[in-house]
Design the sequence.
């Protein structure tokens, strides 16, 4: 076997030589002719593909019922009845779709002649699906498509298998493959697992003595409109608040002090939060209040010893205007601990305050007399009681108001005497200052100025001295003792407190305007 050398040199395709003849040249010529023919065929194909001489066909599509979407080779062509012209002959896929009907897929071959296709769509059998999954407002998707929020009824879900998914923030999602069966409606009634609820329950389990954990649970339930459950947790919070703290053998004194302080703060917050919830317009509001107040009354009737608990509940009753209940609670506490008056001083002061709010001066006088006998050697307690008296003088008029102020003055003077006997100038100074306030309310300005002056002498605190001096200046100006007022104001203008110095300078200008000129 050999190849023609001339073909190699001329660049032709090398053909096998047969014998010693010159068939190589002939074969090369034949090849040239073949190549020209192939080129013509390719050119014709290109022209055909460009549509110059491309044949066209038409297909008509219809369905029963009409109005179905027709998809040709995966592309939406329109709604039946439909005529599509200008199609190239060949094989196509076709699919009819209409809501409530089963889709119809098929293939067809289109030739040069027109083609008509008519399909009958069978109705899809459906059944009802009800999704009552809590909490309300959870998102429902079916087969990946959003359907609405719970509670939700889908009246026409096709028979067969579907993917149901229910979700809401802060809850574990619920996903399930469901089968819709003929004449068998599906109803889903359950609750999603609440992640926040799980955390709050865990907190309660870890620290069952912490009132705030029960409050957090109650507030969360109230916010989610589960009012009755919320009331039950607030009732439990009251139960924990009424119980004494239990410490472990390994708890240090510092740890115990921290827990005790937290208990006081949490008790105060608990009563405030409950009052807020009881006054918030909400469904089942009355039932919420009834549950919580019933729990409060039961716990209170069994716990008259703990002053922290009694004080919080009495304050709660007072804030709600239930002054009689507050008074009865305090009286029961005093009766329960009457043999140990060292634990009753704050109860007496609070009781006096409640009786003043009730405008029962007869009862207030009894409490006042009992208090004076028990605590006449404790100036700070007497000062607190006197303050409770004169702070309520505004709700009285005439002789009743004078009576209240007289009791307050007597207590302050007793406290000042005892403070002097036990060498307590700071305590005496504070009592003198408040005595001055009482005397001003009685319009006894001369005595008030003397009390204010003694209060300044009786303290080392520069801030307290300046504040009391300002009150003294007001009293002196009312009495038109401008010279003495000016002297006190000069000292105040040197204060390092900008507001005090500024006011003193302004008061000096005021005195200058009020003071008569020498020629007059």
Sequence:
């Amino acid at each position: 076997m050999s190849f023609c050398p001339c073909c190699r040199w001329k660049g032709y395709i090398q053909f096998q030589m047969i014998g010693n003849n010159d068939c190589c040249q002939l074969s090369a010529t034949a090849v040239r002719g073949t190549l020209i023919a192939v080129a013509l065929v390719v050119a014709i194909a290109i022209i055909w593909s460009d549509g110059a001489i491309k044949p066209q066909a038409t297909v008509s599509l219809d369905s029963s019922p009409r109005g179905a979407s027709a998809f040709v080779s995966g592309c939406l062509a329109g709604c039946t009845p439909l005529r599509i012209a200008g199609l190239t002959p060949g094989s196509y896929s076709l699919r009819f779709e209409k809501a409530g009907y089963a889709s119809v897929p098929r293939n067809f071959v289109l030739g040069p002649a027109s083609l008509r296709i008519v399909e009958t769509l069978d109705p899809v059998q459906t059944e009802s699906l009800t999704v009552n999954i809590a909490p309300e407002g959870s998102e429902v998707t079916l087969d990946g498509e959003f359907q609405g929020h719970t509670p939700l009824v889908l009246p026409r879900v096709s028979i067969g298998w579907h993917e149901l998914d229910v979700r809401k923030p802060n809850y574990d999602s619920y996903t399930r493959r469901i089968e819709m069966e003929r004449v068998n409606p599906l109803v889903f009634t359950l609750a999603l697992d609440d992640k926040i609820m799980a955390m709050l329950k865990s907190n309660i389990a870890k620290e069952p003595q912490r009132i705030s954990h029960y409050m957090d649970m109650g507030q969360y339930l109230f916010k989610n409109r589960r009012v009755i459950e919320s009331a039950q947790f607030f009732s439990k919070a009251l139960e924990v608040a009424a119980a004494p703290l239990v410490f472990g053998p390994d708890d240090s004194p510092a740890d115990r002090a921290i827990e005790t302080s937290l208990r006081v703060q949490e008790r105060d917050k608990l009563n405030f939060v409950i009052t807020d919830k009881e006054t918030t317009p909400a469904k089942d509001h009355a039932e919420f209040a009834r549950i919580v107040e019933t729990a409060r009354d039961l716990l209170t009737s069994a716990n008259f010893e703990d002053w922290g608990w009694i004080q919080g509940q009495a304050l709660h009753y007072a804030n709600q205007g239930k002054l009689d209940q507050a008074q009865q609670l305090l009286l029961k506490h005093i009766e329960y601990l009457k043999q140990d008056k060292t634990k009753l001083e704050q109860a007496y002061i609070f009781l006096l305050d409640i009786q003043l709010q009730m405008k029962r001066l007869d009862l207030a006088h009894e409490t006042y007399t009992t208090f004076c006998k028990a605590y006449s050697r404790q100036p700070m307690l007497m000062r607190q009681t006197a303050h409770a008296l004169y702070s309520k003088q505004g709700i009285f008029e005439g002789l009743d108001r004078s009576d209240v102020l007289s009791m307050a003055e007597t207590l302050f003077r007793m406290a000042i005497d005892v403070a002097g006997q036990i060498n307590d100038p700071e305590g005496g100074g504070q009592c003198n200052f408040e005595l001055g306030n009482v005397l001003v309310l009685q319009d006894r300005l001369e005595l008030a100025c003397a009390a204010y002056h003694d209060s300044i002498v009786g303290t080392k605190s520069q801030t307290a001295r300046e504040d009391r001096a300002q009150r003294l200046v007001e009293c002196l100006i009312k009495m038109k003792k401008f010279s003495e007022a000016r002297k006190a104001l000069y000292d105040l203008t040197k204060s390092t407190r900008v507001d005090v110095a500024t006011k003193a300078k302004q008061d000096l200008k005021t005195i200058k305007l009020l003071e008569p000129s020498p020629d007059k």
User: Anything to note?
Assistant: Confidence is low (pLDDT under 50) at residues 1-29. The longest helix spans residues 23-49. The first strand starts at residue 57 and ends at 64. The CA atoms of residues 252 and 431 lie 39 Å apart.
